């Protein structure tokens, strides 16, 4: 008997029964759904319901719902805040400083030797020895010109100091500067006359003349200190003024100690009298007038 071959069972293929085909079909439907949604949303003409929804959202967001526009407030681009008072400086001060610089340049051109002696008196013993005699190291015209420069720079310094401290008077501006300059001229002129009178009364004219020469050189050196100080006072900010005042005070003290006290004590020591009188003189004619002037101006140092 012949063997019969084994036949494997035939499987009928039914579309859609494969799991992989089902997954692929679902993903295809999903992509089509998304594409149709995007097309419906952005490419196709929206229906009436969608247009109404969009219009309602715009009206709710942009349309005014207040009462008669009374509750609307103007919107400012910048916030209003409390500011700081910016102190202004007088323009005429700059013009005056330029005039002082030109005046100093003219003095240097016309009386250059005398101006050089004033500067040299700070470090040169030869000039101080000349001042320690009856002859003056500067001429009469140089004395007059430098004395006016000293009074003008000192007056402008006091004016700027009063303005910085916020002290006000009945007169202001250039009138106050002129008044201060005249007061300084009168006070120092009276001081020189009083010294001359004391020299005549006590018969010490030679001593007083030598002392006045040293005093003049000291004041003239201080005038050349005040000149750059008033320039810095006019150009620097308010936060730098205390530093400027401190440096100015230190320089003036150095000039007094190095030139005035060193030279004047040598001259006065040749005349024997009690030290109490020297102390009384320094307080009465050197220190007190400056303090009285500052106190009269009501300037708080």
From TrEMBL:
Database matches in InterPro entries: DUF4271 (IPR025367)
Q: Which residue ranges run through the membrane?
A: 91-111, 138-159, 171-194, 214-236, 243-261, 276-297
Q: What keywords tag this UniProt record?
A: Membrane, Transmembrane, Transmembrane helix
**What's the superkingdom here?**
Bacteria
Q: Which Pfam families match?
A: DUF4271
Keyword Metal-binding set for record:
no
In Swiss-Prot or TrEMBL terms, this protein is called DUF4271 domain-containing protein
């Amino acid at each position: 008997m012949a063997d019969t071959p084994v036949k494997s069972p035939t499987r009928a293929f039914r579309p859609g029964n494969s799991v992989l085909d089902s997954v692929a079909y679902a993903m295809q439907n999903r992509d089509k759904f998304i594409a149709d949604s995007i097309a419906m949303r952005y490419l196709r003409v929206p229906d009436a319901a969608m247009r109404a929804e969009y219009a309602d959202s715009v009206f709710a967001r942009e349309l005014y719902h207040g009462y008669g526009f009374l509750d609307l407030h103007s919107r400012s681009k910048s916030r209003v805040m409390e500011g700081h008072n910016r102190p202004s400086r007088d323009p005429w001060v700059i013009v005056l400083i330029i005039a002082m610089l030109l005046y100093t340049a003219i003095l240097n051109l016309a009386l250059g030797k005398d101006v050089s002696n004033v500067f040299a008196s700070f470090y040169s013993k030869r000039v101080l020895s000349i001042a320690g005699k009856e002859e003056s190291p500067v001429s009469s015209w140089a004395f007059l010109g430098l004395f006016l420069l000293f009074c003008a720079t000192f007056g402008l310094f006091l004016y700027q100091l009063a303005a910085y401290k916020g002290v006000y008077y009945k007169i202001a501006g250039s009138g106050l500067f002129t008044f201060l300059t005249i007061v300084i001229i009168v006070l120092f002129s009276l001081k020189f006359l009083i010294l001359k009178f004391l020299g005549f009364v006590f018969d010490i004219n030679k001593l007083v003349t030598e002392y006045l020469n040293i005093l003049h050189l000291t004041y003239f050196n201080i005038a050349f200190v005040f000149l750059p100080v008033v320039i810095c006072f006019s150009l620097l900010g308010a936060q730098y003024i205390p530093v400027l005042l401190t440096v100015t005070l230190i320089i003036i003290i150095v000039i007094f100690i190095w030139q005035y006290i060193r030279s004047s004590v040598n001259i006065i020591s040749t005349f024997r009298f009690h030290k109490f009188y020297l102390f009384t003189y320094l307080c009465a004619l050197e220190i007190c007038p400056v303090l009285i002037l500052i106190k009269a101006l009501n300037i708080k140092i």
